[in-house]
Batch of 3 targets.
Target 1
Amino acid sequence: MTEALIFVISFIASFLFALGGVGAAIILIPILVSLGIPINTARPAGLFYNTVSMAGASYHNIKHKRLDFKVGIPLILSSFFFAVVGAWVSPSLPSRLILLLFIAFLLFSSGMFFLHRKKAVHQNRTDTPYISLSLTGALAGLLSGLLGVGGGGIISPLMLMLGYSPKKIASITAFVVPFSSFSAFLTYWTMGHVDWRLMLIVSTGGMAGAVLGTRVMHNHLNPQTVKKILGIILLGMAIKLIFKL
């Protein structure tokens, strides 16, 4: 029963977060812990889940030629390296501090989607500011390793600040998250136990949910709707963690 429940939760979470190209580990990890799974097992499971689910969403974007590789590469390189750094540092930090980082991360991301405004002419940027994108990837990778998430919740609002359209952001984030998630997962694997059965369950549900969510986002939602959905999801998770704190 628990395994079936985990599969269903993985599918739903991945579907919702794929609407904005954001990995769902941020919600999956606390759910797994609430079901009695140790945090050291939940983190690599969440990261592997992000890797598989967002890889599925990214494949769908590449297949339909929605992905701008030039924008994605600097994000991938910096996030991949700094995710390893974050994963190595994370075990030495107090659990309360990790929870506070979760909350700050969610509130920042949600606030950016609800409050940030750009003139329409700047919302379809096509150039590649390598330094800004590399710094964005570095921050996202560091948080990915520290928290056990993919970093999409940081990449998305920061790219929005840089002037990229929400749908382009969703495609780029879905492309970057698997790399940062996988590098952090490998690091956690070298430091502790990995439950492969658990990862198979959440990854299977994640793949199906991510592909469906990406298809719905591109075919049925406009950019403003995508932004609102992301903001609501992230704010809801922040409130949940505040009550837990």
Note: Residues 2-244 form one domain.
Target 2
Amino acid sequence: MLVWLTCQADPSFMELIWIPISVLGALMQAVRTAGQKSLNQRLSTMVTTYVRSIFGMPFLLVYLWAVKTGTGEPWPDFNWPFVLHSIGASVSQVAATVFLIQLFTLRNFVVGTTLTKTDVMMTALIGIPLFSEVITGSGWAAIALTVAGVIMISIARAGGKGFFVASESDGVPGLKSTIVGLASGLGFCLSYLFLREASLSLESGGFLMRAGCTVVAVTGLQVAGLGLWLGVREPHGLAAMFPDWRICSIIGFTSALGSICWFTAMTIQNASYVKAVGQVETIFTLIISHLYFREKLNAPEFVGIAVIVAGVLIFVL
């Protein structure tokens, strides 16, 4: 509630608050993705995808209750555009996560997540003609810099050969990895745009209330839809989650907190801007890879980090 109270006291604070919220969302997403990679070694891709929703839902419900109690605002007036956009966000987010987890069987942790970062440029290019995205010249510069930084890190990780590097499971050099990575990026891109439209379609309530209702609605649809699919196709997979309840709970909590951050930031600011700042996830991914997966860093990667930071600073300055 501190964010809400600060914005009420100083409306100008709203102009920049979405940036630290986006950075926190990126950190939580990096931690959650690392946990999913570890869990996917024991569970199927679909069950691993479901973990983030089913274990994250209790945290989201507590958060929405806290927002309702803390702000004292009435529930927004729900409408059909909200429902349709929430369904679009839910389906596209599940598809993107499935592709992302599949990437881990094709490439290492950093390169797998890096391939999905094409979502930033996709969000801008698709969002302008089809959604409510409006991007300024400096916004395009920031997006370009953050994407360039991610590409530099990817090339460094691939030994200077770029995205198209064969892995042991690729029949054609890098082709499957690239297609799956781009599909994941497109899925995430559509989920960002749909969720922003869903939140904006709620015509009443502050940004915390609208974002909270949206994140609960989108995640609730995933819990119901994917849970029904798994109940029919992989009933044994649902039971297989609970022996790993500790890591599942961590994934659920970090996913819930990350989703709260993304949904809140995108309620305030353009989805493409939020995801441009969210490119710092790549930096967090490098740190996690170094500390947890023992993947070493090199000088070109540090240059890429500097370029990403420069892109984020454009929004601050």
Note: The chain has one domain: 18-68+76-316.
Target 3
Amino acid sequence: MERTFHLLVVDDDREIRDLLSRFLKNHGYRVDTAADGRRMFELLADGRYDLVVLDLMLPGEDGLSLCRRLRAQKISLPVVMLTALGEETDRIVGLEVGADDYIAKPFNPRELLARIRAVLRRAGTGAGTGAGTNAGEPQATAAGNSRGNTLGFSGWRLDLLRRELRSPDGLLVTLTSGEFDLLVALAERAGRVLSRDQLLDLTRGREALPCDRSIDVLLSRLRRKIETDPKQPGFIKTVRGGGYLFAAPVERL
């Protein structure tokens, strides 16, 4: 059953909130707004959202801290961070604390719309054009089951339909959409060296920018979640001068 994607815009500038709300509603989205983190968490507690547009510079608790809190609470809701002046440090730190993408102010609303659509696609919520299937619901295969749509490695299970990762103990490991797509790209090509550019193309396609360091940030986050010792990884290995290699044998389940 189709429904309209529900977005939450968090920015302390009323003009920006009103502008983005009108613009995104005109493109088929449901939109709520919040001026600060307190109101953001109130709305998240009361409603179901598909994505948060989160300003970095907020009064009180800033966007980085709010994003970090979301991830600490195991909330995998996609986040697009609004950063000031395009500072690279802000962008990298935003990705490190769990944001899925970022856009620098001032920005064209159409560019933000494109980023939102791309993140929704990567999160598996559909085409990201305003209406689609329920967020997070797996799509049925023609055969009516998910056989062959789970990747297994060293006891870990990566469900491609539900977009879930479970540890050997059966625990659900929270991944952002970017982390999930990167792990899939590596695991599906286990034993093959992939360059940073190849990984960017596989996970972000034409949305990748020159000198984009998001792959390095995502790899670091993935290692902290799946490696016994992230400093001496057993799964995602760095190949000097070549790129990255998924070292564990992978099978389709």
Note: Helices lie at 14-26, 37-46, 63-72, 88-96, 109-122, 177-187, 196-204, 214-226.
